[in-house]
Amino acid sequence: MSEQLLTILKLCLLVLLYLFFLRVLRAVWAELRAPKKVEQRPQKAKREARKVQRKAATPAQLAVIEPPAQKGRTYSLSDEVTVGRAAGCQVTLDDTYASQIHARLFLREGQTFVEDLGSTNGTYLNRKKVQGPMVMQRGDRLQIGNTVMELV
After folding, report:
1. SS (H, E, C) 97-131
2. What is the pTM of this model?
3. Which residues are 111's β-sheet partners?
4. Res. 57: pLDDT tops 50
């Protein structure tokens, strides 16, 4: 091989190595970054939201569908629930593809919303990537890592 070709191959290898390190740093940064704060509403809007929430017939639950080893496990939803691997999450997942604090589900004006909290592998609602708060309906499927849950 010519010396020029070897030099080009060395440079390509170096570029790939730098790209790999940048990806690792980005993943670590996403895990360490604190979740975003939610803007607080005025008192009147909060009272109206509570009235609408009281009108809901039954509180929603998340039921695990996949993986088969956890199928049937259910989690009750309150005003705000965090989902992830961390012990402080209300819904703790035993899934290596889930971030420590992966996503949050919250109730606003009688509707259930899901929001990704900067997870490494993303959150999917009915196989569509969650980018910002999205409304969940009963029967919708939420995928976090390899875990699939249904809102019931």
Report:
1. CCCCCCEEEEEECCEEEEEECCCCCCEEECCEECC
2. 0.60
3. 108
4. no
